[in-house]
Inverse folding.
């Protein structure tokens, strides 16, 4: 039994040594690539990017084959996972400048000056997890729409992450014309406030209801007039 435990420890040490060696090689290569890409990068950011990427890559690389095969389930979620991870790293780094890192997932800032958040006015909202579960919209697809300005995401009191007003979706995707309205306003929050407010030009109907009914041209033109 003692011999078996010693063999297990030796195998673990060997794997750990190989992983650390792999991390060092990856970090060096990534650091060189980042320097070539942008010579103005500051050393702390360069070092953090290189070392974190190397740690993640090396630790995944030494996982058992069964675990590596299971990684296929994450392929559609990698953008969201990476974005959330980096956002939390940045938040932790900035918090450390003044208060020290108390926890990795810090609470959102207090609501300043009585600003109303979407829990108060935006209608039913939900996060990516619930939208995927109940509406079948893939999380990575949802974030891609958001990045491209094709749908609205808002900060909320009850969630650390942005939430999405549900009324903007029709048949599993953003209603036609929504992206153009967002572009006109240049701000998703302002666009959504306008879209859900009764409009005298529309006989007190809301612009979002007309988008849902298929009157995209009328709503887009009205948005342009409002902004001008």
């Amino acid at each position: 039994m003692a011999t078996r435990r010693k063999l297990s420890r030796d195998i673990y040490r060997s794997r750990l040594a190989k992983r650390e060696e792999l991390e060092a090689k990856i970090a060096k290569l990534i650091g060189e690539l980042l320097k070539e890409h942008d010579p103005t990068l500051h050393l702390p950011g360069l070092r953090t990017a290189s070392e974190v990427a190397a740690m993640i890559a090396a630790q995944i690389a030494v996982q058992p084959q069964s675990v590596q095969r299971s990684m296929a389930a994450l392929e559609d979620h990698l953008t969201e996972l990476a974005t959330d991870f980096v956002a939390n790293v940045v938040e932790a780094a900035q918090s450390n400048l003044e208060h020290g890192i108390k926890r990795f997932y810090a609470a959102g800032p207090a609501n300043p000056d009585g600003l109303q958040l979407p829990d108060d006015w935006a209608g039913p909202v939900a996060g990516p997890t619930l939208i995927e579960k109940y509406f079948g919209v893939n999380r990575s697809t949802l974030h891609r729409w958001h990045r491209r300005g094709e749908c609205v995401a808002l900060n909320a009191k009850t969630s650390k992450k942005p939430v999405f007003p549900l009324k903007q979706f029709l048949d599993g995707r953003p209603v036609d014309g929504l992206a153009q309205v967002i572009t006109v306003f240049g701000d998703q929050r302002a666009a959504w406030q306008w879209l859900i407010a009764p409009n005298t030009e529309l006989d007190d109907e809301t612009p979002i209801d007309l988008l849902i009914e298929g009157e995209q041209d009328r709503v887009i033109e009205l948005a342009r007039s409002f902004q001008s």
Summary: The longest strand covers residues 125-126.
